Amino acid sequence: MTEEIQTGGCQCGAVRFRVEGTLGDASVCHCRMCQKAFGNFYAPLVSVRDAKLTWTRGERKKFQSSNAAARGFCADCGTPLTYEAPDGVAISIGAFDDPSTIVPIIQWGVEAELPYARSIPDLPRKGTLHDPNAAPFLKTLVSYQHPDHDTDVWPLK
């Protein structure tokens, strides 16, 4: 059996990580602290559990969000990276280079779920360039985000 290796990092590339081994359970948390930490409806996280987490570039800054947990993030671009508590570390699913393989299996903190969050999948779906008024502008955008893979070219120009 080959060892699982996954990489990821923040959107600017200042902080990068590598996980070797099998990740724990993936979840979404609707609690108000997670909503604020992610600036979103909920926080998608995956436990590191027994896998080996190595920070390969930069250092995350931490905010002690409660008496029991700290939130790790990139001080340069603000990307949420970790939830760190006495029982272990969880990483933001969206920070992985390939988040499509990390499937949440449970929801936590549902007492704080925003009332409209469940109806979001029922909203109409359209591609990025579907709006004819916005498409010309959107076609001119150039992403300065770090690519979803490690690179020796740093800083990005």
Produce the secondary structure layout:
Layout: E1 5-9, E2 16-20, E3 26-29, H1 32-38, E4 43-47, E5 52-57, E6 61-64, E7 70-73, E8 80-85, E9 88-92, E10 106-108, H2 135-138
How does this structure look, described?
By secondary structure, the protein is mainly beta. The chain has a single domain, classed as Beta Complex (Metal Binding Protein, Guanine Nucleotide Exchange Factor, Chain A). About 5% of the residues lie in helices and about 30% in strands. The protein contains two helices and ten strands. The chain has helices at about 30-40, 135-140; strands at about 5-10, 15-20, 25-30, 45, 50-55, 60-65, 70-75, 80-85, 90, 105-110. The radius of gyration is 17 Å and the shape is globular. It starts with a strand and ends in a 19-residue tail after the last helix.
Name a few traits of the molecule:
single chain, 157 residues, mainly beta, Metal Binding Protein, Guanine Nucleotide Exchange Factor, Chain A, seven-stranded mixed β-sheet, three-stranded antiparallel β-sheet, 2 helices, 30% strand, globular
Major β-sheet annotation:
7 strands, mixed
Order of helices and strands: EEEHEEEEEEEH
What CATH calls the topology is: Metal Binding Protein, Guanine Nucleotide Exchange Factor, Chain A
- Adjacency order of strands in the biggest sheet: 6-7-8-9-4-3-10
Mean pLDDT, as a whole number? 92
Cα end-to-end separation = 39 Å
Q: Quickly count the domains.
A: 1
CA radius of gyration: 17 Å
Architecture, CATH level 2?
Beta Complex
The total of beta strands comes to 10
Oligomer: single chain
